[in-house]
Automatic annotation (TrEMBL):
Protein name as it appears in the record: LUD domain-containing protein
N-terminal signal peptide: none
Alphabetized InterPro entries for the sequence: 4Fe4S_Fe-S-bd, 4Fe4S_Fe_S_CS, Cys_rich_dom, FTHF_cligase-like_sf, Helical_ferredxn, LUD_dom, LutB/LldF, NagB/RpiA_transferase-like
Domain 4Fe-4S ferredoxin-type span(s) in chain numbering: 363-393
Gene Ontology terms for molecular function: 4 iron, 4 sulfur cluster binding; oxidoreductase activity
Pfam hit, one: CCG
């Protein structure tokens, strides 16, 4: 399929899901997020437990072969059986043999993503066994014959009305179902009969304790424990990564999982099942007989590898195995909130972590269709209860997809013209957005002609057709006089001998070539507050190529930045950054791109411009030199400012200067760097932006303010007027 047709296919799929599932997904994930914020804010130990849980998972995955042997001994000592399945076919064959040996006609299951991964239901049905899902969400999907759309809430994409319509059509009740109570009561009774009649019960396992063989199930409905203990045979299916040493290590996860997943203080049910082969059984056909008169219980623990050993040996995918399947990465993701897992997901797994799981267990092609929906905003990192760097996993897989792309006959058109380090075959769209610095230099050198040419209808049509730059987007306007040109043309200045601080302002590509005014405003502001200011050479931080999965190019950019800024750091300068995504690169992504010492040095000495202004004011600088309010303000902070925890400085400064500030609660504007420019994602970007538009609907009298470049561009499209950077508001007049 051609790149253009593939973009159209993706756009059509997203458009369809926005229309059919988007409202339900957004409503449900919004509730999860709001409740998570509330419950974690009230739980003082939350961050400490995240750190502890991370350490436990790191240790458990490191010791995985040892834990597998330990749990085998524990389960077998209790009379159960452990089977380690190499892959899906191996696991399914073993499970089917257990079912056949029991002479089972029916199997009841409780929700298990691992069995979804294996396609256990389909395998058993093909061999003549009835299989019933007993958790309400999974039951809804079984009736609808649909795949899950969320790790925790599989039917999150369906509203109450959708479920009522589905059940009325499928079961034809005497009185149509209308209320949630009627639907759940029907499902409870219907599934209760199947649980009582089942020959085999199958569950997953949230955690498996190696020292005792105990299965820990964390649920809200209770059907997992019913499915496990009512039939005489219980088959527990779990990935090998679910192993932890013992009960002592379980506590942090029990505290964390419900809070992260749904914002509950704790789950409704925490069930601990140690292979109960000698415990009483139930014979529903002989209710008067004493418990234990039926046959002895049979227990099987099926531990599934299915690619996990290879993931464990992969330094970048290994973190995926720390996942406890809470779905917080999905809930916190703006794109997921609007389209759900049927777009943001693969064969089995959904949300940000799905890229790692799909690549590991199904192969990298399984992540191809949704990987680009991760924009690297890092909100999921703060949401994850075990601190998995989900965006980095997505970036690595994106890079591997680029590396494995088939060479194109048109590669010669871009090789040599773009300075990236990437191989042939990479998509022209990614190469275009990953080399913005080259485009910006050319654009400024030929402005204003470059801007006029780029705005021509035939040019926009060609860019849409061949590169996938949506023609509905306004393109950035390059400035002939760059920030570096302006700074160097100023009257030569001697060092400010009275300055308390020395600053090197990082001249990012966008500020230097497009939003020059915010750069000038930053220089004037810092100087007015008594700092001596120098300007770095204009260079790319690597954030643009990193967003396209171009790790080699991003690494080269990062090294160049470090080399440029090192002499300033040696001389005692602080680094001030205007663009939040560049600050995020310095503080976070460079950990993966530079050696430890270089990263730490830069991360510790780099500041957001408004964060630095706040510091200068707190250390005695005169705020009277700054500009005060003329209009009230509608302010939207950049998502990476929030994940870095620096957004509050802007609000504090504006408030202290007397500005009437209306701050957006919308977590994302939808633009997300180059994401909103791409034709296949334009509708999604604008749909995400709708939250911001509704929030600022009645702000015509307010000045629009945005800290990030992409945020400012999205706001300009949403409100048909320009947005300025906060430093432009407070800067002294020229």
């Amino acid at each position: 399929m051609s790149a253009r047709r593939e973009r159209r296919r993706k756009a059509e799929q997203i458009r369809h899901l926005l229309e059919t599932e988007g409202d339900a997904i957004q409503a449900n994930t919004t509730v999860f997020n709001e409740d998570r914020y509330a419950v974690t804010a009230e739980f003082d130990e939350y961050e400490d437990l995240r750190t502890e849980a991370r350490e436990i998972k790191e240790d458990a995955i490191e010791r995985l072969p040892e834990l597998v042997e330990q749990v085998r001994e524990s389960v077998e000592a209790n009379g159960g059986t452990v089977y380690v399945a190499e892959d899906a076919a191996d696991a399914n064959e073993y499970i089917a043999n257990v079912v056949e040996e029991e002479g089972a006609e029916t199997v009841v299951k409780s929700k298990s993503m691992t069995t979804e991964e294996l396609d256990v239901n389909e395998h058993l049905r093909a061999r003549g066994t009835d299989v019933w899902e007993t958790d309400l969400g999974e039951f809804v999907l079984q009736v609808a014959e649909e795949a899950p759309s969320h790790l925790v809430g599989p039917s999150l994409h369906k509203s109450k009305a959708d479920v009522a319509r589905l059940f009325n059509e499928a079961f034809d009740p005497e009185e149509p179902f209308e209320t949630a109570q009627e639907l759940t009561e029907f499902a409870r009774d219907y599934l209760g009969e199947r649980i009582r009649d089942a020959d085999v019960g199958m569950t997953g396992a949230n955690f498996v304790l190696a020292e005792s063989g105990t299965i820990a199930l964390v649920t809200n409905e209770g059907n997992a424990r019913k499915s496990a203990v009512t039939p005489d045979t219980h088959v527990a299916v779990a990935g090998v990564e679910k192993l932890i040493p013992g009960a002592e290590e379980l506590q942090p996860f029990i505290e964390l999982i419900a809070k992260a997943a749904t914002g509950q203080p704790i789950a409704q049910y925490v069930t601990m099942l140690t292979p109960p082969v000698a415990s009483p059984t139930i014979d529903f056909d002989a209710p008067d007989e004493p418990l234990g008169s039926a046959d002895e219980r049979d227990f099987h623990l099926v531990l599934v590898d299915n690619g996990r050993t290879e993931m464990r040996e992969d330094e970048h995918l290994r973190e995926t195995l720390y996942c406890i399947r809470c779905g917080a990465c999905a809930n916190s993701c703006a794109n997921f909130q609007h389209v759900g897992g049927h777009a943001f997901g693969g064969e089995t797994y959904t949300g940000g972590i799905a890229t790692g799981w799909e690549t590991g267990v199904h192969g990298i092609d399984s992540a191809d269709d949704f990987n680009d929906l991760c924009t690297g905003c890092t909100r999921c990192v703060d949401a994850c209860p075990v601190k998995i760097d989900v965006p980095w996993i997505n970036t690595v897989v994106r890079d591997r997809r680029n590396q494995g792309a088939d060479p194109s006959q048109f590669d010669f058109l871009v090789e040599g013209l773009t300075p990236d380090e990437e191989p042939g075959g990479m998509s022209l769209q990614k190469r275009f957005f990953g080399n913005f610095g080259t485009l910006a230099k050319l654009g400024s050198a030929t402005a204003p002609l470059s801007n006029a040419v780029a705005s021509l209808s035939p040019v926009r049509t060609a860019m849409d057709r061949f590169i996938g730059v949506d023609a509905r987007r306004d393109l950035p306007e390059f400035q002939r006089e760059t920030l570096v040109d302006w700074f160097n043309s100023r009257t030569p200045r001697a060092p400010n001998a009275t300055a308390d601080r020395k600053v090197v302002l990082y001249a990012d590509t966008y500020t230097n070539h497009v939003r020059v005014e915010r750069g000038k405003a930053a220089v004037r502001t810092l100087e007015a507050l008594g700092a001596h200011v120098e300007l770095s050479a204009s260079m790319e931080s690597g954030r643009a190529p990193l967003s396209q999965g171009m790790i080699a190019t991003a690494t080269e950019n990062a090294r160049a930045v470090a080399d440029e800024l090192d002499p300033y750091l040696d001389a005692g300068f602080d680094v001030v950054v205007i663009e939040p995504s560049d600050l995020a690169a310095f503080r976070r992504e460079y950990e993966k791109l530079l050696d430890e010492a270089a990263h730490e040095r830069l991360a510790e000495n780099a500041y957001d411009v408004m964060e630095y202004v706040y510091g200068l004011l707190r250390n005695g600088a005169d705020e009277d030199v700054l500009s005060g309010p003329t209009n009230p303000v509608a302010y939207h902070s950049h998502c990476q400012q929030r994940t870095l925890g620096v957004e509050a400085y802007t609000e504090a400064i504006l408030t202290e200067l007397g500005y009437d500030v209306l701050t957006s609660d919308a977590e994302c504007c939808g633009m997300a760097g180059s994401f909103g420019y791409k034709s296949e994602y334009y509708e999604l970007a604008m749909d995400v932006g709708e939250d911001l538009r509704e929030e600022f609907a009645d702000t015509d009298d307010r000045t629009l303010v945005a800290s990030g470049t992409s945020c400012a561009e999205q706001m300009s499209d949403l409100f048909a007027r320009d947005a300025v950077h906060p430093v432009e508001l407070v800067a002294p007049d020229e």
